[in-house]
Amino acid sequence: VKASPLAKKIADAKGVDLSSIHGSGPGGRIVARDIESTAATPAPKPTTVIPAMPPGPSDRRIPLTGMRKIIAERLFASKTQIPHFYLNIEVDTGELVRLRTQLNEHLEKSGQGKLTFNDFILKAVVTAATKVPRVNASFAGDAVIEYADIHLSVAVAIDDGLVTPVIRQAQKKSLREISEAVKDLATRARTKKLKPEEYQGGTLTVSNLGSYGIKSFSAVINPPQAVILSIGAIVKKPVLNAQDQIVPGHRLAIGLSADHRVVDGAIGAQYLVELRQLLENPVGMLL
Predict the structure, then answer these.
(1) Has 59 been annotated as catalytic?
(2) Is residue 46 one of the residues assigned to a domain?
(3) Which end of the chain is more exposed for a tag (fewer CB within 10 A), N or C?
């Protein structure tokens, strides 16, 4: 280790390890100011780990599966390393409910599979992302990468955890193609027949808990992506119409969790407005 005599003397006196210091002198030589600077910097406090309460005689200790360990590691890293911020918006889904009912009546008569609300939502998520491309991006240290293709990750709950199979190049798919793709991926995810490449490489994620009756929630970002959408249930409730009359209506709460290093609040809001417009005027997604 190259160090000046004075630096060595100070290091000995203060108990500083010279091998751990980057010298600022000529040729990387350690000088006195480097030792003083290091000694003045407090050591980081150790992370406090709160121990679990000891199990009782009737409690079960369930070892983590490989999947559970990966989920724990990735989501802990997401919450501790990514500066999350959250937005939410309410969508009038009256037209969507009517359109879906009409389409499914026709599809049923022709022997075709029905469309779910989630199919329309996924299509809208993708279409809105083509208009606000910053949400389809990742933080890369000294740059932000905006992806040309939208590889849509769809959260699917399985027995021992959660997987996010990917609809590749979703921006090139029709509503029917997205519907068929998500049904196929979800079925194979639950039967554990997905290939690794089918749940890797997503650029934007959707998590939908509407089927459980959850009205709204905030999801944890799926790294290295910058945005995840949280979709609640479509709720029938009294609303005010344009004439200030109380009438039955359908409303949907959508949340956005974003990486603030990539997406600013105004961009996130712009994206949600685009998404709302698409869902409130769903016929446009059929064209």
Answers:
(1) no
(2) no
(3) C
